[in-house]
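Practice problem. Given the sequence and the SMILES for fe (ii) ion, write out the predicted structure.
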Amino acid sequence: MESTATQDVMQESTGDLILRLAELNDIGIALSQEKNIDRLLEAILIAAMRITHADGGTLYRRPAGSKDTLNFEIVRTDSLKLALGGTTGAKITFEPIQLRTPEGRENTSMVAAYAVLKDRTVAVADAYREEGFDFSGTKAFDQRTGYRSQSFLTVPMKNHEGDIIGVLQLINAKDRVTGRIGPFSATDQRLAESLASQAAVALTNRLLIQQLENLFESFVKLINQAIDDKSAYTGGHCYRVPVLTMLLAEAVDQSQAGPLAGWHMTDKDRYELRIAALLHDCGKVTTPVHVVDKATKLQTIHDRIELVDARFEIVKRDAEIRSLRARAGVSEDEAVKIDEDFLQRVRDIEADRRFLRACNVGGETMKTTDRERVQAISKKYRWKTAHGEESDLLTADEIENLTIYSGTLTAAERRVINHHIEVTIKMLEALPWPRHLQHVPEFAGGHHERMDGKGYPRGLTRDQMSVQARIMASRISSRP
Ligand SMILES: [Fe+2]
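Answer key:
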């Protein structure tokens, strides 16, 4: 049942053989360039059918992680106009072929399983006369469709690492002149084996590239998750930026008018920009959590407004003690006056306390009069520390924080936040980017620049930035 005769090859006309070899060469080049796995699998089977003049064929793959099954990936029969799997969208419902029986023995009765288990090409001249293999599935298919499966050429697909990753099965070799079905020749076998080997290498390489890309993107997401988890206030930022960046970039790509009408992206450009957008804030891994996550002006590791509250409470009790002491031995009228003064003092304390609490919540901008009032309140109340020292209500640092003009960050904290872009650039420029991703540091590193040169850290102007960096910068504006 196995064809080994080199003589057959010699008998074929040399001219025809050269043509078929040239075709095989072209197929090899085409396979190495195909990036989509489904299209690649389909191309492998179609090429094998063409080069061996087969009417039908099946491509099986061993799924990753399972060494004991063969899945139907692509099924085609030209004369039945049958095309399943791959890019056709037609699902294959055939059960996978098991390489082992439930008892654990090798399932050598199925020809595709045999080819894998024995690492051997199997040529069958007529399935209906073949004794050694179980062709009941084929016969059932024939009965359903009226087809007559006759000759089979079953070739294991072994990659450069010596792993059999699938099986190429060709069905019904057609005579090139008469179209009559006959057995596959030894030349067909050699060509199919050569093609299967090239296809296995192309497929393995493509899968490796895909796995590495998946791993790389998962790693990028891991960094973003770590950054986004630092703060509930900016959480999700690292995921929103790529989405908005790509929407803007697609809009520019489609624009028909204006200065960017001629600007377009290839799929490679899109991937490079998306990676840059995903990594734009990677430097934030070094930004302290209490700055990234600073929700109020006085918040440090904890919100110091609670300390201010406690001091107000001390001031209030001091006032109460003073008033109670003053009441001792005074007339009724004087006592009423002391009580009124005390109540007024408490009202003042409460109002100032509420005011400071309101100031603590960062807003768009803070009025000059409000900033002056914070200073005045600090001087208005004196309180005694645990060491018996009299002190203003607020420390200089608390005043600086409570009088932040806009938002919740002081100038020093803003510098810490802004530092993330310098870290981002440093980190990204240190990575050994492959050629198709070499612009990632420039795209990502420009996201806080501005068209007018007033951005940071480099103060670039629009002419000094790529369109992609400008898209990212316009998306992010002045936000972190
Ligand atoms: Fe940023």
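Check your answer against the key. Residues 108 and 118 are 9 Å apart (CA to CA).
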